[in-house]
Amino acid sequence: QVQLVESGGGLVQPGGSLSLFCEAHGSIHSFSAMGWHRQAPGKQRELVARITGGGIEEYADSVKDRFTISKVNRKNAVNLQMNGLKPEDTAVYFCKIEGATVFGPRSSPTDYWGQGTQVTVSS
């Protein structure tokens, strides 16, 4: 019922910048937050950044002051601007929408994940 379409990512040198974009498609009535998580090889998936419907931002300590998440006006979408990238930022980045409900009867809040996009920081 809800699909997340991700774009951006790729290969960048240390200190460089990348932007990730995620848009939620479907008959979305409401949601509580959207954001990005990442998973590096051999590690657990972790929160990178999220933003609530009310605009409250949350960041992992490791990306504060380097990454910025923002909502895209008039769309169920978010942008993640990543500056000062480090090799340890290398991971698959997954978009997530939290507590999404769709138009129609008996829609309960549900979390959805995107397919993931690779970010590689290397010289």
Helix content: under 10%
Structural class of the helix and strand makeup? mainly beta
Question: Rg to the nearest angstrom?
Answer: 14 Å
Average residue pLDDT = 95
**Record field, number of beta strands:** 12
Q: Summarize the biggest pleated sheet.
A: 8 strands, mixed
- How are helices and strands ordered from N to C? EEEEEEEEEEEE
Distance between the ends: 40 Å
Q: Identify the overall geometry.
A: elongated
Poorly predicted runs:
none
The fraction of residues assigned to DSSP E strands is over 45%
How would you describe the overall organization of this protein?
This protein has 123 residues and is mainly β. Helices cover 0% and strands 56% of the residues. Strands 2, 4, 5, 6, 7, 10, 11 and 12 form an eight-stranded mixed β-sheet that branches. The chain has a four-stranded antiparallel β-sheet with strand order 1-3-9-8, with no helix packed on it.
